[in-house]
Amino acid sequence: MRDEPLNPAAPSSPAPGALVDQYGRRITYLRLSITDRCDFRCFYCMAEEMEFLPRDHLLSLEECLRVIRAFVDMGVSKVRITGGEPLVRRNALWLMRDAARLEGLRELVVTTNGSQLERHAADMRAAGVRRVNISLDTLRADRFKTITRVGDLSKVLRGIDAAVAAGFNGIKLNTVMMRGVNDDEFIDLAHFAVDKGIDLSFIEEMPLGEVDRARAYFGSDEALALLRPHFELVSSEETTGGPARYWRIPGTRTKIGFISPHSHNFCDTCNRVRITCKGELYPCLGQNDAVSLMPALRAHPGDDAPLRQAITDAMGLKPKGHEFDPQAPGPQLIRFMSMTGG
Ligand code: SAM
Ligand code: SF4
Fold it and tell me: Which of 18, 27, 122, 187 has the maximum number of C-beta atoms within 10 A of its C-beta?
């Protein structure tokens, strides 16, 4: 399904002063983590005992809105709010509502673990969120508890139903592929998505953060081969400028995606940057270079020029590509996924 512009007045042509990196890639997509906190502790994402940042180290929600506004003014048309778990941040809906009103923003989307969706889905939809991604690695309650360490599957399933009822333009489940953990459920998860009339993306596990990653890596091609005997999969032309490739299942509303940072390099068309909850702008998820936007935000509360300059300067740091190696031992990046946002 193609999204209509979020704001009908939004211009579709490139804004003046649009962000272009040193390799000529236009940056049109911002992913903003609004908290490092989470009500789950997924073992591939976080350590069991996590130390979270003190509140004053985080971007305030007003600062988040300032950052989003600056990016939208510089030609960014799609913003994803993520975390940690974005819905555990108090007043996250205020941010969604105000961001959705920004002229020039065409798509406001949210990534969530689904635990709070039963309560918030309708309000998020009303606030202007067009699409949601919901993480779901298993359909088995005991396994869900093992993976998330603390999560309750039934709550998430009710959250998914609430999202379907809220009438989002798109709902996508995200499943991290883990050999020996959930690789026997990929077919069931795909049937589940078809039954709900929603999409499903399988994600290759990335080596972020110091967590135990003893299991062997599971690649997209192997998952595709697993699904093929069970579903007719028709390659879709759809692209997000990111690492995902999509397949339609004819006769259903479901698309199956594969997010393959390892096996299919996508860096040539990368259109995105990420900002952590403490205001660090990462031009690439797979590299350590970052620029802190905090000094520009806090030293110049009434003037966005230094903020815009810091953003423009950071484009010079965007590398040609990431250097993840799925076979290498140990974490290749020390920061956790929950800091940068998935
Ligand atoms: N808490 C929300 C959620 O779980 O959807 C949003 C943040 S979470 C960091 C975003 C996505 O990143 C989730 O789909 C999660 O499964 C994925 N993720 C976390 N750690 C990952 C890793 N090491 N490799 C691949 N995906 C990961
Ligand atoms: Fe929380 Fe999402 Fe990380 Fe799981 S993947 S611990 S839900 S931030």
Answer: 27
Structure tokens at 326: 């799925």
How many structural domains is the chain composed of?
1
Give the pLDDT band of residue 3 (cuts 50, 70, 90): very low
Indicate the pLDDT class of residue 100, thresholds 50, 70 and 90: very high
Q: Is 340 in the pocket of ligand 1 (CB under 6 A)?
A: no
Q: Evaluate: CB of 113 within 6 angstroms of ligand 2.
A: yes
Distance (Å, rounded) from C-alpha 59 to C-alpha 69? Answer: 14
Q: Is it the case that residue 263 has pLDDT exceeding 90?
A: no
Three-class DSSP category at 293:
coil
- Find the domain containing 42 and state its range: 29-340
Answer whether residue 259 is part of any domain.
yes
Ligand with smallest separation from the Cα of 217: 1
- Give dist(CA 190, CA 181) in Å, integer: 16
Is 231 in contact with 256 (CB distance < 8 Å)?
A: yes
Q: What's 49's domain CATH number?
A: 3.20.20.70
- Please indicate, yes or no, if residue 9 is contained in any of the structural domains: no
CA dihedral over 334, 286, 261, 124, signed as positive or negative = positive
pLDDT band at 177 (very low <50, low <70, confident <90, very high): very high
Give this prediction's pTM.
0.90
Residue nearest to atom 12 of ligand 1 (CA): 342
Ligand 1 near 45 CB (within 6 A): yes
- What pLDDT score was predicted for residue 318? 76
Residue 270 near residue 242, CB atoms below 8 Å: yes
Position 48 in a domain? yes
Sequence-distant (6+) residues with CB within 8 A of 323 are 286, 287, 332
Rg, the chain, Cα only:
19
